[in-house]
Every structure is written in C-alpha cells, then in structure tokens.
Request: fold
Amino acid sequence: MKNNQTAILIFANSAEFEAIQKPFQSSQLLFDALNLQTLKVVKKTGIPYFLSSEKNQTGNSFGERFTNAIQSVYDKGFENVITIGNDTPHLQSQHILKAVENLKQNDIVLGPSKDGGFYLMGLKKSHFNVETFLKLPWQTSALSRSISKAVQSQRIKLSYLEFLSDIDTLLDAKHNIDSFKKLSRAIKDNLISYISVEKEIISSYFISIENFSQTLLFNKGSPVLLHV
Reply:
C-alpha cells in the first residue's frame, strides 16, 4: 500500500530499556518478541514508518518525548501520523490500515486500550497542537477520556477503533492469553514463560517474608537489627 501523506510512528523503547522501566522482572525476551512483531505488522502495511526509542527521543517527560517525536514526523513532510507502541500483542496491520481510512473522514482516530490510554492514535497535522498535547495526562487512566473531552469542546471529528489490551502488569499478560483474539506463537510462548517466572519470583518473595517473620517470632536471643 502506498500512501505518501501518511507515516507510522513506532514510539517504543528497546527491549533492554523496557525491562528496566516496566514493573517486570523477566520482560526482556517478551519485549524482544513484541518489538519484532510490531515491526512485522508495520512493514505489512506498506506505509513509511519511523522508530522513536530511548536512543533518539528528546524531552524531560513522556509527554514531551512523545510530542517531539510526532512533530519530527510532520517535519519530514507528512500530513498524517499513525502512532503505535510495542506493548499491544493483538495489534494487527488491519488496525493501522483502518486508522488510515478513518482519517479520510475524521481528524483523529483512537485505538483505546482497556487501561484508559490508547494503543494507536491517528492524527492530522492540521489538528496537532503542541501546547494541548503537553497538557494531556499522559500515562494515566484518564488519557483517552481527556482527549475525548478536548475533541468535543473543539468540534473535532473523532473515530474509534476496537478496544485492545496492552501489557503493563502480570494481570495484563494473563488477560491477553485468556482473550479469544489470536496471538502469535512467539508472543504466546513468551507471555506464558513470563507469567511462570513472575509467579516463581512472587512466591519466593512471600516465602522469604514468611521465613523472616518466623525468625522474629521464635528469636530467643538478641533483638534482630533491621537496617533500612
């Protein structure tokens, strides 16, 4: 598919960086697989794309980095930008292509995620306002709702795609596996492995706490010194 007016922005960090930022203890292999799948999905659309990671992002906050990344794509001469991340296992090429089609009749397209954010945003350059973007409650459950309110007040045409789940917690990983939506074998295997490892880590943690509590309970000698 050729579309010289539209570009895709993959706003996603490397697996190594995600492993540090996400609240997971064993996520690098998972995000390696997610990054590979995201790139495969994007290439399948035939639309020009750009990758924004921790290696080339600028700004002190998530909102600044995201806003600057979008602006950089517009600066290359594109009129529409479709932004996606790397933490939505069920994202398919068809979601991106539908967003492109919806932008022909709308000003903004959102693919809402179940945590209150979005896994995809399609935006026309004519409706990209840096000041408004920077004021949005990024990385909170109020993000999609805030965008909807801002759009309604300005009479901007907004279109929605279907809801999808991203991965921020262990429960998110389980929900993605339990979903009736199809997952690639690589992603599913990594999610199952991740859940298994995380459960072992959590189990070991509580066993350690229990053993420590018993030590305190049955200690007959000197008081245990706790170092904070």
